[in-house]
Design goal:
This is Thioredoxin domain-containing protein 3. The chain has 452 residues and is α+β, with helices and mostly antiparallel strands. The protein contains 22 helices and 12 strands. Among the domains are: 95 residues, Alpha-Beta Plaits; 81 residues, Alpha-Beta Plaits; 134 residues, 2-Layer Sandwich (Alpha-Beta Plaits), CATH 3.30.70. It has a 4-stranded antiparallel sheet. A 4-stranded antiparallel sheet has the order 6-7-5-8, sandwiched between helices. It has a 4-stranded antiparallel sheet with strand order 10-11-9-12, with helices on both faces. The N terminus and C terminus are likely disordered. The structure holds adenosine-5'-triphosphate (ATP). Adenosine-5'-triphosphate binds next to strand 12.
């Protein structure tokens, strides 16, 4: 019970507010402007423009490095169930594993990868050994923005030059084990990129002359309300994922050196200083009698990363290329995945067990096509992937297209199912239907089962 309050007045206020909300929802009234959120500006990270430019070459997103290596875990270690252990040691040594595929290597692949050893007397026997069982082919990167390869070279060199009794040891490795012994990696950057193209033709490393970078741009409420035409400007950037958060427009802008480029277009953050440069956007779009600048841009690539992760968090989904499509259209489908902007966080080729197929399709148990579906899904290797992107679950479903390829051809002719599906059962790809399913499937396919 509330005492000492003007109940009729409170009732009136609440009723008025509800009425107002209804009018806003019906589009009859505009919402009153809310107090502006002030974002930390460049001052929070006192870095010069030069430094920002300097840092900008570590292309965004997510501090990925430009150099990748291909590593091979040999059949004896795979047979002995040591793959996870070796992968963990690679990670503990500061490397990141971008992809992992279990494969039977062909003689050609072995001879190409180990070309540097071809003069060794027992090379043919070694090739036969490598063909004796499945290997794990890894894409390895260094986590920080530094080159992955030199560290492998260092390890290799140290290993070769050291006394035989004193192999280099990394923490956690047995005396006779070095990373070089555990997982073969090529010696040079040139070899690395050649092998990457050879083993993972569709793995996109973003190695361009002008690496693409992203930055966050914010158009503050007052300007947004007054100058909507300003948005035309963003055609000069590749403005992705426009999102309205109340009355503020938040954009992820993409181009080479996006952070420093956007900052230089904005001009100084202090309006008085900006006005000295009338070409600057902050000067052009200053609002009379409003002392705050109307446009925000990330100060540095690392600030951009933090801000973008906050406003556009990356999502993961579970995706699978079904057995018949994996056999016939794998490369084309992987290409479409890349072109749609997904990063492939994990990938492996594996034939589903009945248990796995039943797990992925448990909602369909009892349906007339269930048995046929499980049989179909277990008939050969599938390509199993974790895909990352903003809004990944929905985006992947959109890229897959409708379940039935006949419908897909009509409504989404560019979708994977329109282009590569055979029929409603054999429809090329699978994707989780929501984030919870995706998490469970990822755990099921790459967590517990991998550890077995
Ligand atoms: N009527 C049907 N006849 C035969 N197979 C079917 C039929 N309906 C669905 N399927 C199979 O079952 C799978 C799961 O069906 P669901 O309705 O969940 O489709 P989806 O969500 O588009 O596909 P997925 O779950 O594979 O991503 C389909 O991908 C397809 O292989």
């Amino acid at each position: 019970m509330v005492k000492g309050v003007n109940a009729p007045l409170i009732t009136k206020i609440v009723t008025d507010l509800v009425q107002e909300e209804r009018k806003i929802a019906a589009g009859e009234k505009e919402r009153a402007e809310v107090e502006e959120i002030v974002f930390p500006e460049e001052g929070s990270s006192e870095e010069s423009d030069e430094e920002a430019v300097e840092e900008a070459h570590y292309f965004f997103p997510f501090s990925e490095v430009l150099t990748y290596s291909v590593g091979i875990i040999k059949p004896d270690d795979v047979l002995a169930g040591r793959v996870e252990e070796i992968k963990n040691k690679i990670k503990d040594a500061g490397f990141d594993i971008k992809a992992d595929e279990k494969r039977m290597l062909t003689e050609e692949q072995i001879r190409v990868f180990y070309a540097r050893k071809k003069e060794e007397p027992d090379f043919d026997a070694f090739v036969q050994f490598m063909k004796s069982g499945p290997c794990h082919v890894l894409i390895i990167t260094k986590k920080e923005a530094s080159d992955a390869i030199p560290q492998w070279i260092d390890l290799h060199k140290t290993n070769e030059s050291a006394e035989p009794e004193e192999p280099i040891n990394l923490p956690g490795l047995k005396e006779t084990e070095s990373l070089v012994n555990l997982c073969d990696v090529e010696d040079s950057i040139e070899d690395a990129s050649r092998h990457l193209a050879f083993f993972f033709p569709n793995f996109h490393t973003n190695k361009g002359k002008h690496p693409v970078e992203r930055t966050l741009a914010i158009i503050r409420p007052t300007l947004l309300k007054e100058r909507r035409k300003f948005l035309v400007f963003f055609f000069f950037f590749n403005a992705l994922f426009p999102m309205y958060s109340g009355p503020t427009l938040i954009l992820a802008l993409t181009r080479e050196n996006a952070v420093s480029h956007w900052r230089s277009l904005l001009g100084p953050k202090i309006l008085e200083e900006a006005k000295e440069n009338p070409e600057s956007l902050r000067a052009q779009y200053a609002i009379e009698n409003v002392p705050i600048n109307q446009l925000h841009g990330s100060s540095t690539p690392s600030d951009a990363q933090k801000e973008l992760e906050f406003f556009f968090p990356e999502e993961q989904t579970f995706a699978l290329i079904k057995p018949d499509a994996a056999k016939t259209h794998k490369d084309e489908i992987m290409k479409k995945v890349k072109e749609a902007g997904f990063s492939i966080s994990k990938v492996k080729e594996q034939a589903l067990t009945r248990e796995m197929a039943a797990h992925f399709y448990k909602d369909h148990e009892g349906k007339p096509f269930y048995e046929e579906l499980v049989n179909f899904m277990t008939q050969g290797p599938s390509v199993i992937m974790v895909l990352s992107k903003e809004n990944a679950v929905e985006e992947w479903r959109k890229l897959m297209g409708p379940t039935n390829p006949e419908e897909a051809k009509k409504t989404s002719p560019k979708s994977i199912r329109a282009q590569f599906a055979h029929d409603i059962l054999s429809n090329a790809v699978h994707g989780s239907s929501n984030v919870e399913h995706a998490e469970r499937s990822i755990q099921f396919a790459f967590g517990e089962l991998d550890a077995d």
